[in-house]
Specification:
This is Lrp/AsnC family transcriptional regulator. It comes from Neptunicella marina. One of its GO terms (biological process) is response to amino acid. The protein is an alpha+beta fold. It folds into 2 domains: 5-45, Winged helix-like DNA-binding domain superfamily/Winged helix DNA-binding domain (Arc Repressor Mutant, subunit A), CATH 1.10.10.10; 65-139, Lrp/AsnC effector binding domain/regulation of amino acid metabolism (RAM) domain (Alpha-Beta Plaits), CATH 3.30.70. It is built from 5 helices and 4 strands. It has helices at 5-16, 22-29, 33-45, 78-88, 115-124, and strands at 65-73, 94-99, 106-112, 132-139. Strands 2-3-1-4 form a 4-stranded antiparallel beta sheet. Helix 1 (5-16) crosses helix 2 (22-29) and helix 2 packs across helix 3. The longest helix is centred in the first third of the chain and has 13 residues, at 33-45.
Length: 154
């Protein structure tokens, strides 16, 4: 789908404030209400706008420990990969899971209250994920940059 300058401005604006009213959005991007609404609906139906969410503060919710975990699997057949990917869906503390290139198979991001809670999670769940050969954990010391906005050019 080809995006024009209005589509891109709509996307940039919604990334910054998903609760903006359609009237405010249309003024902000320089379109009248109905064409702006049609564009938003088209962006949603095309799957460019996936959903609108509320972002929460990890620290205010006492979830200040972020852990990145490289995972190496024993087997790499489709069934083994699917079992692992399915199992990570059931662990709430895993907030991201990415397949990776190179000598590691997956990168997980885990958010927990404390190092002790992470140790418990590691022993009780993570080491028991299907087909896991090796886990390597790295604790984030400080978040230097955080954005939920994709860099839409143009």
């Amino acid at each position: 789908m080809k995006l024009d300058k209005f589509d891109k401005q709509i996307l940039r604006t919604l990334q910054q404030n998903a609760t903006i009213s359609m009237a405010e959005l249309s003024v902000h991007v320089g379109l009248s209400h109905t064409p702006c609404w049609r564009r938003v609906k088209r962006l949603e139906s095309e799957g460019i706008i996936l959903r609108k969410v509320t972002l929460l503060s990890n620290k205010k919710l006492n979830l200040g420990v972020s852990v990145f975990i490289y995972v190496s699997l024993k087997n790499h057949d489709e069934g083994a990969l699917n079992k692992f990917e399915s199992a990570v869906q059931d662990i709430d503390e895993i907030v991201e899971c990415h397949t990776t290139s190179g000598d590691k198979d997956y990168l997980l991001k885990v958010v927990v209250e404390s190092i002790e809670e992470y140790e418990h999670l590691l022993k009780s769940k993570l080491t028991h994920l299907p087909n896991v050969d090796h886990l390597s954990s790295t604790f984030a010391l400080k978040q230097v940059k955080y954005t939920t906005e994709l860099p839409i050019k143009g």
